[in-house]
What does this fold into?
Amino acid sequence: MSEAARNITLAWPDEILDLRDQLQALNHPLYIAGGPVRNAYLRRPIRDIDLTVEANGISTARKIANSVGGAFYPLDESRDVGRVIYSINGVQHYIDVSSFRAETLEADLRARDFTINALAVDLLGDLTLAYDPCDGLTDLQAKILRQCLPHSISDDPIRVLRAVRYSVQFSLKIEEGTRAAVRQNAPRLAEMSPERLRDEWFKLLELPNIKTACVIADRLGVLDVVLAGVFASAGEKASAFQIAHALRRFYTAVSPMRTDETAAQFDLGMFVVSLDRYRAQLQAHLDYLWPNERPQFALLLLAGLLGNLSEHQLAKFAEQFRLSNGEKSRLSLSVQCAPLVELIDLVDPVSIYRFWKAAGESGVDAILLSLAQYLAAHDSDLEQDIWLRQMERAQFLFHAYFVEHERYVAPPVLLNGDDLIAELALAPGKIIGELLNAIAEAQVSGAVNTREQALDLARLIINSRSNGWHHA
It folds into this structure.
């Protein structure tokens, strides 16, 4: 046995044991490395697996895909990393297989970021034998986050963000030398590729205690690099942290993580009571995955942090983070439409229609963001009656969107643009869109219910125009 290996109790789920049985024919060491070993030690869930082999990572991944009936593709040919995608009980899982990044397993582990991740177990060997050359298991027991080598963070400054995330995720104290390295290398985050910075930041946004993560990131000089120029004052920054905290609590309230304790406080209790009937729809909305599996709820938290930016500033920030076009639109509309929520006249169906027409699906996020902004602004002086009215407003708007969508959001199409052009001898142009919108608003108000009524309204509008439109 290697001096860097020791027998310990690891809680491997059935999926790992089944995978072990399926891969026995490979007949060479397949080392589970990093996070899965750490999580097995901590008795935390394991979903995706990182494997490392002495050589031929991509070809090994192809063999594994064949063995488990999964899909395969080369993830990083320059580093000999392959990915396997397979399903267990309808849930998609990933296996990433890489070749050693050094000559030996021990050297490979020592070259990793933090001691708690410098762990490995041979999947096809003794599953209680952990390779731990950096004594990461001792650090886990002592609740300490320590870089593997004095230059681990400076070798790859993206590890600055990981240090913040791991410290919060596993409730670890960052060791003094590691903390100094984080501070020293935080400015170098600006040198990282936008894609790597974005992906690490979104992983941090997914943490349950996002407020603590933001506070630690701020104290270590990370926030001023990742969110450079976002906050004009310490007060603005603190408010943004509170907004993100409230949004995370909302997500917990509609997610499977909710417990009886979730709604123990009045504000969240009223959220649960008022909106629980839409829980499934809200959960599906917030769990939607953008490219690279970035969840919508993390994008909403980002909107909470960036809520004071102008439309132009938001667009610039979204571009810097290389967000997809869909994410850019959702981020911008969420922030822009949040202030509109308070202005909606709930007794006027047209007012509700206009909100949803402007916001689209982003209206769901705008409503949640508006609620979070209210809580943040009244953190110490929340008035129950006003909060109840806020919840009633949200309840009504969600009912319009999720239950009476056809009445308030998307009335049935009675006429399309081609119909208007043909029936009324109109030329294509801006008037067509205006007429269609006027018809839709009249449908929402109840003034128009049939195709003929829609045509009559269109004629009335055209006849009322003194000039500016021409017949074909």
In short: The longest strand covers residues 91-99.
